[in-house]
Amino acid sequence: MEKMSRVTTALSSSALTGHTMHCHLDAPANAISVCRDAAQVVVAGRSIFKIYAIEEEQFVEKLNLRVGRKPSLNLSCADVVWHQMDENLLATAATNGVVVTWNLGRPSRNKQDQLFTEHKRTVNKVCFHPSEAHVLLSGSQDGFMKCFDLRKKDSVSTFSGQSESVRDVQFSIRDYFTFASTFENGNVQLWDIRRPDRCERMFTAHNGPVFCCDWHPEDRGWLATGGRDKMVKVWDMTTQRAKEVHCVQTIASVARVKWRPECRHHLATCSMMVDHNIYVWDVRRPFVPAAMFEEHRDVTTGIAWRHPHDPSFLLSGSKDSTLCQHLFRDASQPVERANPEGLCYGLFGDLAFAAKESLVAAESGRKPCAGDRRHPIFFKRKLDPAEPFAGLASSALSVFEMEPGSGSMSWFVDTAERYALAGRPLAELCDHNSKVARELGRNQVAQTWTMLRIIYCSPGLVPTANLNHSVGKGSSCGLPLMNSFNLKDMAQGLGSETRLDRSKGDTRSDTVLLDSSATLITNEDNEETEGSDVPADYLLGDVEGEEDELYLLDPDHAHTEEPEYVLPQEAFPLRHEIVDTPPGPENLQDKADSPHVSGSEADVASLAPMDSSFSLVSVSHALYDSRLPPDFFSALVCDMLRFYAEQGDVQMAVSVLIVLGERVRKDIDEQTQEHWYASYIDLLQRFCLWNVSNQVVKLSTSRAISCLNQASTTLHVNCSHCKRPMSSRGWVCDRCHRCASMCAVCHHVVKGLFVWCQGCSHGGHLQHIMKWLEGSSHCPAGCGHLCEYS
Amino acid sequence: MFVARSIAADHKDLIHDVSFDFHGRRMATCSSDQSVKVWDKSESGDWHCTASWKTHSGSVWRVTWAHPEFGQVLASCSFDRTAAVWEEIVGESNDKLRGQSHWVKRTTLVDSRTSVTDVKFAPKHMGLMLATCSADGIVRIYEAPDVMNLSQWSLQHEISCKLSCSCISWNPSSSRAHSPMIAVGSDDSSPNAMAKVQIFEYNENTRKELTSSGGPTKFEIHIVAQFDNHNSQVWRVSWNITGTVLASSGDDGCVRLWKANYMDNWKCTGILKGNGSPVSGSAQQGNPSPSLGSNIPNLQSSLNGSSAGRKHS
């Protein structure tokens, strides 16, 4: 006891100083141990056994204990321990099973004192009794622990763990007679040194070998154990059954564990393989190491706190043949580098945000966060004031959801679902889409659609020029699907437009406008519509939104009267207004210069009237009266599409591209189109709009896109004879070796179109089967199946 | 504009990443408590935890979803020096796990010798590919040659960035106008370290040549650009949707925007301060760009720039 108190005073009189430093050893170290004066450290390994003095700036070699010419296996050390009361006394455990004690006070060069050759295999650990000068304990690979009295030649007692090997032995600091031992099989045993016959207590601590243990230096009965299962567990040994109080998960098997002095909850660990770092953990925060020392380049084999009452100096020896002194303040702190926030934008405009609660709390300070209630429970345990601990860090997770209608992506879904892209005349498509856009409150887009209709469906000139053009293009492109669509579309367009042409003779242009909008609801069934019928038809169409259009068109009509004859001359200058106004005046204000708009165009744009309805009118009149071919505008429309794509509204770009088809396609390069299509399809699929996406794929003219929905479609076929699935390609069944594609009616092999019933696998020539089914619904093969063809 | 919905995440330590899936109806969180949780949005809009499992033996830094075409697949990376690929198994549900989905580890990528700081799946059109970056500055690109077999990943490339990597981002553009690119940010804290942000590009031509000749399918990667102007750690890199502008955020509270000009030279086109005010780009050392930085509209248009915009500007 007297010596202990001296140690304490020694520290208080001259606090330890030093730096993070390292020195090179001649050979890899297996273990280190510190002298109780904290000024010397012993390093032991297979071929090294030296004492170094720890000085302010460096390690200085004091003594080489490996003496003698012939290297003895007795000197191949697996472990070394320096007596904590007698600074002249050391013990080493040799890999050949010998336990050696060393007396530094011997005058000769060889300091070897005693030799115990009782263990049969490697001694893994030696341990001095903390308060008894002559008691030494050893644990060996052979499964035995032996207690030596240094005053005697032989061991005093032998403890059998009834297990393969002992990995660690440690005297309890709290109980004079108790020691703990850990075993390869995962068990921890508690022994009374007076009772070698059986252990006091045994429990399974780890899954796999327990490599190390350490008693808490303060009198608490806590034992930390580390194992190959990468865990450090802290056990409360004071209770009847050992109770696990903490569990730290490290990233590699734990080779050594050492409680940090003066810090009740800290312990240092190092690993046996893979990981070369030393970690200091706060057992209350079991997932993130409090500190990390990264100096070593190979496995760290021994760690020791320099002084039992100083928490800032850690010594370590490593297989990389270095001895290091680490300063706690120089350690890297993984906590500091950990990202405290997570953020992600969802598809629907949701924003998920996770942040450290202390950050959130510091900001708002009023709302109790969800995790807060954990803290009071935690803080019930009395905290050590000397050891600042911020509390268990936790994050608050919240999702910020868009209020419906305010910027959420519902407009995209609605628009995608409701847009009509094909199957109707161009004018109807434009009107329909314009209506959809307007109902969703996207006026700029609605305006664009209206503009497009005006540009491309102005009466009189569209049919001839455009139809010819589209047919020519379509055939050269060689896509039958698109081709037929265009023809159909144009044919209908032709019908309605020639009709308009007829009506134009006696009505004014404004009624024409009304009429073409009315065709939206009054479709093919009233082909014979005359100019006079128009108002009635219009009233029949009961859609509410239509009235908006009426109102919107009305001021147009008011305007039309006056400037009718002035406008033709303005037709050319006004061209620029068309370029820039469809994108919308409101956008032009903040994004004045998109990369495409040259300076002069931008100037015109800023000069253009901001009243969109007015510009619409003037443009429409310019169109009617100047009889410009629609081709004239295609460059401008293309610019408009690019503008939309750049604004992030690739939906608009693709929709217009599909609706206008050949009219603009040639003016935009293939790659851009393909990119737009791909982006739009990707978006549609993200929103699970499979039908729309498939429609777009079908309507696309880009080869790379239109083959998308032909990929990975598998046809499963059964043989019509043996009813087994046909695995090989071709129409010969590899089981019954017959051709499966026989016509059930004419009994010939079908070449060309083959139709078959999915129920009974029988089928034949399309014409034959159709003919057969007119008479009977049973299978023509006579199998009795009621065939169904879809 | 937003309605906040607080979720009792019940992670036992810090959450480091949140990630929505492709359709925006699932969410994954990862935490230092070594677990990943998957949240599903119910009809009523509530988020329910449908899976929570221990993924690593260290802090989980990032979690990311694969394209649903490959199944319900997650990748995570961790302080424990590994990245892992997880797949959801839909199948028999016993009473105990009712409502809980089951995630199986398909592979562990153990090549890194230091903390794996980020993991990202490549855009779908490149197939099933995964990039990781680690604290020792190595970017690794893995590929699953068979998309049906998530347990086989081959290490395709190891790119050394020389600086500790903190984040990684694939260029999302599927346009064939340019080859796939990957941006890497470094959290190296020394102010004079070079190349805090780097962009790497696949050389598709080399790939084609080599695969057709039957040789190894390694294709050349060359560095497209490296930016030395960040004076601090870089925490995140992110591309715009068309892959023409790269944004990187640093510890100095600034977001820097990078854009290629017509010569494919990548330049800093703008700096945004955390408080929203733009910093003059011409103040950058060694980067005289007269037309940039001074005008905000230019910046905005470059932010929204499409691939078409890239060609024209």
From TrEMBL, chain A:
Entry coiled-coil feature ranges: none
One annotated GO biological process: autophagy
Pathway: Protein modification; protein ubiquitination
UniProt WD repeat ranges: 116-158, 203-245
Region (Disordered) location: 579-600
Record CDD domains: mRING-H2-C3H3C2_WDR24 (cd16693)
A Gene Ontology molecular function term of the record: ubiquitin protein ligase activity
Protein localization: Lysosome membrane
Enzyme class (EC, first level): transferase
Sorted UniProt keywords: Autophagy, Lysosome, Membrane, Metal-binding, Repeat, Transferase, Ubl conjugation pathway, WD repeat, Zinc, Zinc-finger
Documented EC number(s): 2.3.2.27
Entries under InterPro entries matching the protein: WD40/YVTN_repeat-like_dom_sf, WD40_repeat_CS, WD40_repeat_dom_sf, WD40_rpt, WDR24
Main location: membrane
Enzymatic reactions: S-ubiquitinyl-[E2 ubiquitin-conjugating enzyme]-L-cysteine + [acceptor protein]-L-lysine = [E2 ubiquitin-conjugating enzyme]-L-cysteine + N(6)-ubiquitinyl-[acceptor protein]-L-lysine
One term under GO cellular component: GATOR2 complex
Family note: Belongs to the WD repeat WDR24 family.
Quaternary structure and interacting proteins, as annotated: Component of the GATOR2 subcomplex, composed of MIOS, SEC13, SEH1L, WDR24 and WDR59. The GATOR2 complex interacts with CASTOR1 and CASTOR2; the interaction is negatively regulated by arginine. The GATOR2 complex interacts with SESN1, SESN2 and SESN3; the interaction is negatively regulated by amino acids. SESN1, SESN2 and SESN3 convey leucine availability via direct interaction with SEH1L and WDR24.
Role noted for this protein: Catalytic component of the GATOR2 complex, a multiprotein complex that acts as an activator of the amino acid-sensing branch of the mTORC1 signaling pathway. The GATOR2 complex indirectly activates mTORC1 through the inhibition of the GATOR1 subcomplex. GATOR2 probably acts as an E3 ubiquitin-protein ligase toward GATOR1. In the presence of abundant amino acids, the GATOR2 complex mediates ubiquitination of the NPRL2 core component of the GATOR1 complex, leading to GATOR1 inactivation. In the absence of amino acids, GATOR2 is inhibited, activating the GATOR1 complex.
Protein's name according to its UniProt entry: GATOR2 complex protein WDR24
Organism this protein belongs to: Pipistrellus kuhlii
